[in-house]
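$ ./design --mode recover --in tokens.txt
reading tokens...
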């Protein structure tokens, strides 16, 4: 048997997890993607939509450029999941035979100006729903990334892109395309290079929201070692400076539908009993907070500590921690965590009095609950027990 035949025969037996970088990719993309890690195959890939109004056209060469970019982003997530203890896990993508990513080219019913940043998402998602209904089985999961070409007007153009939706919204997220959105500019100290970091980092960050991730900041020692978390200010550093995913984010992605490996039969986001908290305590020991929560129906318990205000987009400073689990009686688990105050940069630097501690309960099927307690550092004495709010006040959603 010839070697090539043997390889072909073996590859038919094994899941094809690491396709070679396609030959039509740019030389720079081939160089950047040369250290790719194998990605575990899944069954529910992320849907990627290239969305147009009824009067505009895709940006030139978008299939190659955005395929390279999506490979890069998939690799960022895969490498960071691997580092966090989830080897080769990343979001799946629908692929074409030539190695490009499959983009669903959806043409909306309205002129492209009607799909603008502030209000365009509703009409866009409505048009995508119609597309999905008309093309059975082509939308393969609950998560959609929508990419629209930049506006061209007195404010926006290919050197200053914008105008279109650019944010996460539930399991949907929006990013944009423009002529210089190309991996060949990665890491370059040029206008195109800085633009690329902004919009590539932005795409990866908004995609994180669309994959169930809230904002989070790293601990002092983690940031010193690893750089900037993608779900903090990492949208401004990806590709230019060290950027990472916190373990907190990785645990949420482990319970995200498009990260599930083939054969995982979890019914993601289906209704299931809420977590039941049996016991909980939070104690101030003078230089550390000690948290313990005993609950059921949970896969992970994550923790975020942040300054007020607590609203979305005021929460980039929420420092992420992860509990450790020990089985308790009757199907319950006890989740414990020690938070050294030295790891909270804002607390250390400003000595702010009030902070909130959010306990995020993550279920196996990806459903999430958040449970917030606000406390005042200035009133704490050593060995004080901080009363946690009633667990009945936890809310579902993120
Ligand atoms: Zn964000």
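writing sequence...
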């Amino acid at each position: 048997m010839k070697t090539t035949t043997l390889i072909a025969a073996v590859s038919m037996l094994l899941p094809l997890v690491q396709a070679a970088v396609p030959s039509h990719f740019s030389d720079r993309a081939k160089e950047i993607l040369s250290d790719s890690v194998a990605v575990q195959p899944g069954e529910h890939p992320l849907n990627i939509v290239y969305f147009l109004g009824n009067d505009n056209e895709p940006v030139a060469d978008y299939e190659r450029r955005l395929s390279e970019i999506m490979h890069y982003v998939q690799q960022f997530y895969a490498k960071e999941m691997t580092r966090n203890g989830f080897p080769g896990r990343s979001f799946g993508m629908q692929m074409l035979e030539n190695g490009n990513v499959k983009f669903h080219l959806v043409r909306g019913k309205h002129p492209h100006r009607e799909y603008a940043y502030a209000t365009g998402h509703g009409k866009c998602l409505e048009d995508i729903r119609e597309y999905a209904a008309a093309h059975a089985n082509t939308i393969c999961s609950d998560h959609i990334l929508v990419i629209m070409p930049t506006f061209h007007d007195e404010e926006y153009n290919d050197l200053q892109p914008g105008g279109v939706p650019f944010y996460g919204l539930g399991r949907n997220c929006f990013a944009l395309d423009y002529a210089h959105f190309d991996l060949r500019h990665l890491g370059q100290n040029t206008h195109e290079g800085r633009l690329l970091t902004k919009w590539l980092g932005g795409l990866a960050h908004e995609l994180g929201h669309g994959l169930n991730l809230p904002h989070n900041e790293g601990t002092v020692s983690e940031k010193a070692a690893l750089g900037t978390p993608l779900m903090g200010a990492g949208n401004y550093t990806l590709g230019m400076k060290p950027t990472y995913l916190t373990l907190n984010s990785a645990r949420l992605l482990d319970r995200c539908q498009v990260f599930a490996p083939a054969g995982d039969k979890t019914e993601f986001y289906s209704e299931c009993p809420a977590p039941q908290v049996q016991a909980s305590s939070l104690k101030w020991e003078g230089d550390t907070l000690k948290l313990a929560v005993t609950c059921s129906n949970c896969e992970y318990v994550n923790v975020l500590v942040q300054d007020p205000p607590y609203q979305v987009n005021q929460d980039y400073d929420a420092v992420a921690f992860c509990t450790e689990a020990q089985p308790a009686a009757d199907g319950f688990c006890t989740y414990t965590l020690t938070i050294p105050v030295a790891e909270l940069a804002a607390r250390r630097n400003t000595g702010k009095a009030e902070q909130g501690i959010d306990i995020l309960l993550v279920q196996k099927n990806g459903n999430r609950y958040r449970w917030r307690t606000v406390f005042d550092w200035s009133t704490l004495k050593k060995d004080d027990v901080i009363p946690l709010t009633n667990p009945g006040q936890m809310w579902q959603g993120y």
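exit 0
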